[in-house]
């Protein structure tokens, strides 16, 4: 029985990245479908749940992707609404790598030092990875602030994460480098998750800051999100702080992504969203 993964993407084209990792994770065939919405997914999901016998449903699974995490979350909810007793398949959400990237980064930070009770700032935190990283930091007991160039965007993200995960996040407007430097002056943890090729934090804003203990940057495109760091930093000490670059925790991100895909085919009742993916990442980070 072949392992079939239906990749439901909210964008105009299914992600090639997600397709490659799906095959590496053990899928025998990946079927990428684009522009999927809650309004048009009905027949797509029905085709996955009505075709195989109960004992064979575990060989069919759904991956929800795309660049917009809120659209992905809405799609995941719509997929699950199509399921009913005995008729369901396992499903995973990872819009723009939101869950696997955030989970790997926060898991490595947690391995490097305690997060509970610490003040954490997620710079450029309104995107898919930033929102989920903020949630995971909060779930670990950190007091989390997310920044954006516009306060209403930060507030919107905080509200969405409160509604979905029940965590309290603080929004801050930080429209330039100095404002972002000011935002992290009292922080012990800094995670940058901004757009590719945008420096969010200059070296001068963190290297001599006595409060900062841990830093992570999700950017792999120069200039990096944190000046004075390297994308290959793998828990290295710089100026008395522990630093994780995007490629430093990237191996864990890919390993977690592949592991989740593999687990989708263990039975037909798996749901891999932020919480389950983060728990897996924390366990794998210790290996």
Which features characterize this protein?
38% helix; 2 domains; 19% strand; Rossmann fold; seven-stranded mixed sheet; five-stranded parallel sheet; 287 residues; alpha/beta; 9 helices
Give the integer mean of the pLDDT values. Answer: 97
Give the overall silhouette. elongated
- What is the straight-line distance between the termini? 31 Å
**Helical coverage, percent range:** 25-40%
Largest sheet: 7 strands, mixed
Name the strands of the widest sheet in spatial order: 7-6-5-8-9-11-10
> Can you count the beta strands?
12
CATH fold-type name of the largest domain: Rossmann fold
| Secondary structural class | alpha/beta
CATH level 4 superfamily of the largest domain: NAD(P)-binding Rossmann-like Domain
Distinct helical segment count: 9
Question: Could you state the order of secondary-structure elements as H and E?
Answer: EHEHEHEHEHEHEHEEEEHEH
Strand content: 15-25%
Low-confidence stretches: none
Rg, rounded, reads 19 Å
CATH level 1 class label of the largest domain: Alpha Beta
CATH architecture of the largest domain: 3-Layer(aba) Sandwich
| Domain tally | 2
